[in-house]
Amino acid sequence: MNIEQLYQHFKECTTACTDTRKIDKNSLFFALKGDNFNGNEFASIALEAGAKYCVVDEKRYAIDQRYLLVENVLETLQNLATFHRDKLAIPVIALTGSNGKTTTKELINAVLSKKYKTTATIGNLNNHIGVPLTLLRMNEATEIGIVEMGANHPKEIGLLAAIAHPDYGLITNFGKAHLEGFGSIEGVIKAKSELYDYLMANLKTIFVNENDPLQVQQTQNYDKVFKFGLRTSTDTMLEIINTQPYVTLSYNGSVIKSQLTGTYNFNNIAVAIAVGSYFKIEPNHIKNAIEDYTPTNNRSQILKKGSNTIIMDAYNANPTSMMAALENFKQLNQGGKMIFLGDMFELGKTAESEHQSIVDYLEQNELGKVHLIGKNFYKTNVTHSNIQKFETFEALKLNLQQHPIKDSFLLIKGSRGMALERILELL
Fold first, then answer.
1. Which residues form the Mur ligase N-terminal catalytic domain (predicted)?
2. What's the CATH number for 3-71?
3. 103 is in an annotated binding site
């Protein structure tokens, strides 16, 4: 079945899906394969659950006209997404980066939604499957698409750009993330810049943070840039007023008070303001969108639990984002400070040195009582009596049961696999 024929079937459906546990009625089911499963085996279950058609790539499963046989389901999903995106012919904004992608995407969506009908990546469904599904959620009512792109190996951002055909793009930052796959910070820069490569090759517009030397360097020989930052030479000029406990800034003569903490979130907000400015969103609407945005999903949330106040930033972590969180915590003028840090994953051969670098910083800076959780942190050399190591979460749990925490100001930060939000249950 060719892509034109498949597209006609897709137009009969409400949406596309890949999970039989989340089937929408009259959807188009793609029977993807994984290391430990064959989606073709679940095609009949998808139909029983309400799917209208199933895309399969093994002939023995295509038993009637509801089964659409193709050579490769994953490639077909990606090709259909591109075909659909091109048919819609709407502006698509792509963003990637080492840190802050999802928060930035949510902020951009909040700002643009003040004027346009938008369709944006849900959560962080930002990989080779999530990006096509995001594109296929767009329809004739969509005026602007916002696509988050994630990667942990070279060539992945290039693939996602080739699927999404973005008209605009930005990179939040270059940091020490997924070093196991990228090899080094130089590898990170090269891989993330695959988005720049696509945009430049196709003469598309790039949003550039003038205060990030790496972004400026990577785009210095390209003309179609929209600059933002703290300099008067930028297209959108901003001014930091305060970052503690929440980011407050000045834009277009107006003060914007966000519900996000930390200098690192100033850059995320700045991107959204710049994009809003480019797309002619009224300044007061930009202000309202930023001020109304509330962080969720353990991303820079400030929570209250009993007598304790918590900065919950445990959605994910890498050396760059962890150091930024610690620097921000250091600047907070609060008593009773306490830190919980969980292992950082996907660092490969640099894991030992990067975890030790965090410990060295903690020993050189008085930030309160520190709890380090996980096998990597447990291997570090600690000399300061204010720093405790716990190889497992269970060991930490036992300690907190014996030494209850109250009247404290906490920072909780760790990789997703550490699930440090569980600490909230112990407070």
1. 18-81
2. 3.40.1390.10
3. yes
